[in-house]
Each structure stands twice: as C-alpha cells, then as structure tokens.
C-alpha cells in the first residue's frame, strides 16, 4: 500500500505536471489558425492510451484465465482468485512504464518555448535559435523589439492579474472541476453501472480473472465507439466551431443524455432495453470528449500571459483533479445510499453547473496568444506584434 501511494505521488508530481507543460509548449509553438487542433491532438492521445490499456488488460486477463481456470466466487470465495492472479495487475501496470520510457529522452531534449525565452527571460537570440531549430525555418533575433515590448510583469493573484484574468481563471477552474466530477465518476464506476443494468454478470457469478476480462472488454468497447471518436471530432472542428461552442455543446448534451439515462432508469434495466442504455451512456462519453474534457485542457493554455500560462493551466488542472476525487468517492457512496438513478441525476446537475460557468471563459479562436493575454499592448495601449507573436 505504501509503495502504491508513493507511486501515485510521483505519478501526479511528474506525469500530472506534464498536463500544463504539454499544453503550453504546443500552444506557444503553433499559429493561431491551427492552435486549437494541435493542442487538442496532444490531449486526444489520451484516448489511444485508454484504448491501449483496455486491450492490454483483455489480452493479459484472457491468457491467465485460459491457463489458470478457477471456480466462481459463489462456489468458492477463496479459490475464485487464483494465486497467479496477483501477477495480472502487476503486468498491466508495468506496461504503463513503456510509453513513459519511450518519451523520456525526447522530453529531455525539448528546448524552452520561444515565447517564454523572449518575453519573460528577455533572450531574443536564444528564442530565435530555439524556434528555428524546432520549426526548421530561419529567424533573425530582434532583441531591441523584445526589450521594448511590455510584458505581463504582474504576479499571480495580483490586483492587475485579478482584474484582467480573475474571472477567466475562475471559469477554467470551475468548469474543469465540474467536468471531472461527472467524467471520472462515470469512468471509474462503469462496471457498477453495467452490472446494475445486467450488461455484465454479477461479480459473484464470476471468478476474479473472468470479472477483469469482462470489465476490460466493456470499457474498451466504450472507448473505441465513443471516447476516442469524441477526441478526434474535437481536433477536426475546434478551430472551426470554437472552444466556447464545443464546450457549451458538450456540457449540454452530456446533461441531456445523463438525464435521458437516469430519469427512466428502471426502463433501461429491463432485458430488452439494456443495449439502449449502453448507447445513451456511451453518448455522454462522446460529448464529454467532443466537449469539455478536451476544451478545458485547451483553453487555459491560450488565454493567460506567457509567464503565468503554465501556472494557471496547472491550477485549472489541479481543480479538475479535485473534482475527480469528489466524483470517485462521491459516486461510490451516493450510489450505495441513494441508488444509481438519483446519483446519475446529480451528475446531470453538475453538468448544468459546468455549462453555466462556461460563460466566464473567453473564446480564443482566431486570436494570437498576445491578444488573448493582453501582452500585445505596448506602453500606450496600442497593438504591437513581434516576430515571435506573429507565429
């Protein structure tokens, strides 16, 4: 247990810290016309990770299930979990180290973003050199223009920051918080919902390896049919529809489909209607990813000043993880005390709150990062553009 807690700590400290870094790096190396698609594509790779994790779990559990048959839990509670099952979760968990090792080298070789180097570190020559290397174009340093350019030199939570970006930060933190309450509660407890509607058998009628295999198969099917397509719909349309529209639409349809699943819940539990429930439930995942699960990652990397961009994104992401904790534990206890139907209705209300707080978030589509953050204003308040800001 202590080892797992230590692992989770470093996972959050390391991989979790990459949330703001990945989004910020991509936002500062892309142009305003395609910026949303590139940032969303970074996040969309999470979908392939979810899919790959499910496939690994299916393969490993199927192999062990065939090699080590066991009775069901109701026949033999102790014997239903064979000793070799202890290796299964370890193997699945260790597979997660492979992509981390593959990306470690390239992450170490990545330079600081040119916007930070130029506008915050005030080193135009290094910024031009880094940008030339990454984009494979020739850029000349314009140190004088960068030194004359007024940057966002105010601190986090200073009066000037709160005046300019206070509502924006409130919007990005609250929408990510409400989104993750609904998103993670649905993800973590899919098995309980699928068992409740009879899509997978009751746990006591299976052994441990059979249960893992069936849960992994069901979750992988949901990921393949709704989660992954939702991510890439966002990538394809975010720079056409805009972040605000997609986020608002996503929260709206998540609310609609959760209520449509929850209010006639007993209707969906009937044997002839269970597939219909799975379809409705899957659509909530589709519109969470073709919606706020993607846009809450994209927007904080665009609307804040260069020196505070990653910090504000990290604060927003941390708020989301707080929502994930509420969703994970809250759904578990709520489902036990008030039932799945009322719990799903509560999640629908949470989505409505996310929809309302979306109105605090500006639309970044078609604007440069300097326009969005206010860094394009010089001492007299007029618009200026540096070579780096124009990219």
From TrEMBL:
It is a multi-pass membrane protein. The chain crosses the membrane at residues 38-64, 87-106, 221-238, 244-263, 275-294, 314-335, 344-362. It is found in: Membrane. Keywords: Membrane, Phosphate transport, Symport, Transmembrane, Transmembrane helix, Transport. Residues 370-391 are annotated as: Disordered. It comes from the Eukaryota. One of its GO terms (biological process) is phosphate ion transport. PROSITE patterns: MFS. Residues 1-366 form the Major facilitator superfamily (MFS) profile domain. Residues 381-391 have a biased composition (Polar residues). One of its GO terms (cellular component) is membrane. SUPFAM superfamilies: MFS general substrate transporter. The keyword Transport applies. It holds the Pfam family Sugar_tr. This is Major facilitator superfamily (MFS) profile domain-containing protein. It comes from Rubroshorea leprosula.
């Amino acid at each position: 247990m202590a080892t797992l807690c230590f692992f989770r700590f470093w996972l959050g400290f390391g991989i979790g810290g990459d949330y703001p870094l990945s989004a910020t790096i991509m936002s500062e190396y892309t142009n305003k016309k395609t910026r949303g698609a590139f940032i969303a594509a970074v996040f969309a790779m999470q979908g392939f990770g979810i899919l790959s994790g499910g496939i690994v779990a299916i393969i490993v559990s199927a192999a062990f299930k065939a090699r080590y048959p066991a009775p069901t839990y109701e026949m033999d509670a102790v014997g239903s979990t064979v000793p070799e099952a202890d290796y299964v979760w370890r193997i699945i968990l260790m597979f997660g180290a492979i992509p981390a090792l593959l990306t470690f080298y390239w992450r170490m070789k990545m330079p600081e973003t040119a916007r930070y180097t130029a506008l915050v570190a005030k080193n135009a020559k290094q910024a031009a050199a880094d940008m030339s290397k990454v984009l494979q174009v020739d850029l000349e340093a314009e140190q004088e223009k960068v030194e004359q350019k007024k940057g966002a030199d105010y601190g986090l939570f200073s009066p000037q920051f709160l005046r300019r970006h206070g509502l924006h930060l409130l919007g990005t933190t609250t929408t990510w918080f409400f989104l993750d309450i609904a998103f993670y509660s649905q993800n973590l407890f899919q098995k309980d919902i699928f068992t409740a509607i009879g899509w997978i058998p009751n746990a006591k009628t299976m052994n441990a390896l059979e249960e893992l295999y069936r849960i992994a198969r069901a979750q992988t099917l949901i990921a393949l049919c709704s989660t992954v397509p939702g991510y890439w719909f966002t990538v394809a349309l975010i720079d056409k529809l805009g972040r605000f529209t997609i986020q608002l639409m996503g929260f709206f349809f998540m609310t609609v489909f959760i209520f449509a699943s929850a209010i006639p819940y007993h209707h969906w539990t009937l044997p002839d209607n269970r597939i219909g429930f799975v379809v409705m439930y899957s659509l909530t995942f589709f519109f969470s990813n073709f919606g706020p699960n993607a846009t809450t990652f994209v927007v904080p990397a665009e609307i804040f000043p260069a020196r505070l961009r990653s910090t504000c994104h990290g604060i927003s992401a941390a708020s989301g993880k707080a929502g994930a904790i509420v969703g994970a534990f809250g759904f578990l206890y709520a489902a036990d005390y008030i039932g799945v139907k009322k719990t799903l209705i509560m999640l629908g209300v949470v989505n409505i709150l996310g929809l309302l707080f979306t109105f605090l978030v500006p639309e970044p589509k078609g604007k440069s990062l300097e326009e969005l953050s206010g860094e394009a204003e010089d001492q007299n308040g007029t618009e200026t553009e540096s070579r780096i800001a124009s990219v």
